What we know:
By secondary structure, this protein is mainly α. It contains 10 helices and no strands.
Amino acid sequence: MxxxxxxxxxxxxxxxxxxxxxxLHPPQQPHQxxxxxxxxxxxxxxxxxxxxxxxxxxxxxxxxxxxxxxxxRLVGVAGLVAGAFSMAAGxxxxxxxxxxxxxxxxxxxxxxxxxxxxxxxLELRGMYEDRGIDPAVARDMxxxxxxxxxxxxxxxxxxxxxxxxxxLGSPVQAALSSFFTFALGAxxxxxxxxxxxxxxxxxxxxxxxxxxxxxxxVVLGVFTQRPMLRSALRQLVITAGAAAVTYGVGRGIGTxxx
Length: 258
């Protein structure tokens, strides 16, 4: 096909310009999203952060009272095990309750589509028109949607409830992610106390936890595509603040008991 009416050939200079344009403006590739709807990613990030903050605070709080290395180890292990099971149980119960609530709303929507399809169609048309879609286009869109019962349910669920019937979250996935990542985060400040004790273990625990907090912040920044430095500093400040407060409380109680 000629580039312009009346031209039967494509001159070399036009081809070159086209190549330059394609080089400077390459075709956009379809972008891809991570699937974060199952709850596992959120539970994993939260579990790792919570495990680290909880156990460094617990370990330093007890160590501040100077009860001896064996007691600190016992408390740290107990905090790891109890915290991991607590986090997993909490995630499972909350995700299950959320899933059941969404399933209930989907049942209501499914019944409404069956009993009053005209009313649901008018409701969907109104939503599209409120967003600025031409009424004729909105009518055609709704007609296509309502012709397929499954598509109608998915569309109404998304537009009215903000959910997808196929992505309600997995309680088991969230619970397992939370359990293992909490245990991993809680294990970091405990490591020095499994090897040594006293001030050396305390300093090593603080250093390891600080490094881990920065690492968690960096990973979170990469995962969310946010500034890694800000994410790392935020995680470090929160971890350090919680640990400092509990250490101070433990130190005060230990001095009072002495």
